[in-house]
Every structure is written in structure tokens, then in C-alpha cells.
Amino acid sequence: GTVAVATLPGIVGQQSHRLRSLHADFCQLYAREHVMRLLMEATFPALIRLDMSYYGGISVDVTPVEERTRLHNLTLDRFPALRILRHTAVSIYEASIPLFHQLTVLDLEICSFQFGSSQPLDKFVDALEGCQSLVELRLVEVLGCHSLPPQRSSSKIVRLDNLRELAIRDAPAYISWFFSSVVIDPDAVVDL
After folding, report:
1. For residue 32, is it left (φ>0), alpha (ψ between -120 and 50) or beta?
2. Which of 111, 116, 151, 174 could form a disulfide linkage to 143, CB 3.0–4.6 angstroms apart?
3. pLDDT, tens only, 116-134
4. How many CB atoms lie within 10 A of CB 58?
């Protein structure tokens, strides 16, 4: 079932194989870094939905923000059943790309891509090409977390034929750049 983050330390490792939905708001956990480490090291074979947030609240943690928000281990072998991923204020790394390919819902807010490339937005759009199960995509202040919108280094256009809902909120230049790189079904609902 769904687990409250306050009970997480007692179940990670013991019950992680049974969890189907998990919401973790790390704003409340900065003083308990061991909880985050446990979550990032455990395997969740039945987890279908993962909501993680570092947004809001006041922190007493002295760990640099970049260290707190890394999700190096968000990989397919640790989350084989994951279909819904919602993240707020998290850095996303290249190791997560294969996991994206099985998602039906990808919801990112104020996230940054750390893909080890000078064109992380291009790399993200390329990653979307493998997301053919994606029916809902929400990008809020994600594209603008990077430098000025790049010129697409490739003329390849990514098609998301199964996408039914797209919400994208960012500066107009980034939205324009996104639509020059991605084609969606004309019947999809778009919220700008």
C-alpha cells in the first residue's frame, strides 16, 4: 500500500518488495539523511508510483542542495514495475533514462538534467524517443533550468504518438524549442 514517509525507516528493506506506491517529501527529512540513503539503496520490485519532492519548507540540513537532490540510483533494475514518476526539485541523471522508457506518466517540476553532456535538453528529448508508453507528460519549469534553449543538434524529430496529455510551463522560448523537437498526437490535450 501507500506508506507515509514517517514510517519509511521501519519498512525499507523489510517491506520494500511489497510497496506499490510511495510519496517521499524530503523537505521534512533533512535531519534524517539515513532515511534518504535507505530509499536510494533499496529495490522496489512492485512499486508502480513514485512521488519524490525536495520542494518547499525550511531545512536545517547543511548538506549542499546538489548532494541532497541527486537520484543516481533511479534505475530500471531497482524499479522494474514503475509506471508513474513524479519529481519536484530533483536532479535527474543519465542512468534514469531506461526507466523513463517504461513510464506511462512522467511529471517533472523544477528538475534539472545532469546527463554529462553540453546539451542536456537534447539528451532529454532523445530519451523521450524511447517513451512510447507515455500517455501523460508534465514539465513545469524544467527546460528553463538549463542555459538558453539550444538549437537542436539533430534534425531528428521525436514522435510521442501515445501521449494524450501534455502540460508544459516554461518561458516561451523553451516551449517553442520543445515543440520544434517533439511531435504529439493532434488529439492530445495540451496545457500551456
Report:
1. beta
2. 174
3. 666 788 888 888 999 999 9
4. 6
